[in-house]
């Protein structure tokens, strides 16, 4: 039985080694042709696919206190040739909540995405928000910052006050 397992293992190892070393060489000319073919099949080029233009793609809240939710408004413009609707705006986690208008954004019109962040846990954070529009196009915006731990009480406890209260 050990011999069979050893033979099968050697055979599998040699097949993996062969699969890893077989490389198909593609010339530069063929790569260009493949890229053009893919672009024509998808009907997209880099310039024409960008119809959602943000004033800023990233916002840094800096240092924020723990337990205080914060928000930021991302402004964007429809720079495409036809109106569109934001199909979905999805945050990378539940602590980030995007809000947006579900109306059609006309060509040249400005619209907004309000992104809230619940600063519940201390430490640095980077959160991404993925915007899906025109059915299959996506864009990413990012919020980041650092949450600092707030003190348990609003002011230091004054123990001398306790002694004054008990003397009366």
Describe the structure.
With 168 residues, the chain is of the alpha+beta class. Helix content is 29%, strand content 37%. It is built from four helices and eight strands. A four-stranded antiparallel β-sheet has the order 1-3-6-5, with no helix packed on it. A hairpin with a 3-residue loop joins strand 7 and strand 8 (137-148). The longest helix has 20 residues, at 2-21. The protein is flat and about 75 Å long. The N and C termini lie far apart (91 Å). The relative contact order is 0.16.
In short:
With 168 residues, the protein is an alpha+beta fold. It is 29% helix and 37% strand.
Topology:
Layout: H1 2-21, H2 28-42, H3 46-49, E1 52-54, E2 58-65, E3 70-78, E4 86-91, E5 96-100, E6 110-117, E7 123-133, E8 137-148, H4 159-167
Parallel strand pairs: 2-8
Antiparallel strand pairs: 1-3, 3-6, 4-7, 5-6, 7-8
Q: Quick one: overall form?
A: flat
Total beta strand runs: 8
Q: Decide which structural class fits the backbone.
A: alpha+beta
Strand content: 35-45%
Number of helices: 4
Question: How far apart, in Å, are the first and last alpha carbons?
Answer: 91 Å
Mean pLDDT, all residues: 78
Spans of at least 5 consecutive residues whose pLDDT stays below 50 are 16-48
Task: Please list the strands of the largest sheet in the order they lie side by side.
Answer: 1-3-6-5
Largest sheet: 4 strands, antiparallel
Helix-strand topology string: HHHEEEEEEEEH
**Global Rg:** 28 Å
Helix content: 25-40%
């Amino acid at each position: 039985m050990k011999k069979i397992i050893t033979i099968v293992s050697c055979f599998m190892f040699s097949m993996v080694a062969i699969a890893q070393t077989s490389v198909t060489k593609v010339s530069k000319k063929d790569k260009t042709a493949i890229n053009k073919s893919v672009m024509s099949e998808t009907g997209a080029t880099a310039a024409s696919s960008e119809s959602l233009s943000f004033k800023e793609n990233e916002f840094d809240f800096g240092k924020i206190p723990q337990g205080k939710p914060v928000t930021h408004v991302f402004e964007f413009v429809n720079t495409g040739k036809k109106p569109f609707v934001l199909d979905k705006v999805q945050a990378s986690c539940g602590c980030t909540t995007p809000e947006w208008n579900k109306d059609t954004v006309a060509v040249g019109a400005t619209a907004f995405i309000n992104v809230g962040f619940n600063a519940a846990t201390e430490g640095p954070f980077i959160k991404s928000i993925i915007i899906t529009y025109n059915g299959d196009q996506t864009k990413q915006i990012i919020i980041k910052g650092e949450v600092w731990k707030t003190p348990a009480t609003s002011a230091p406890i004054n123990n001398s006050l306790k002694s004054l209260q008990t003397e009366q």
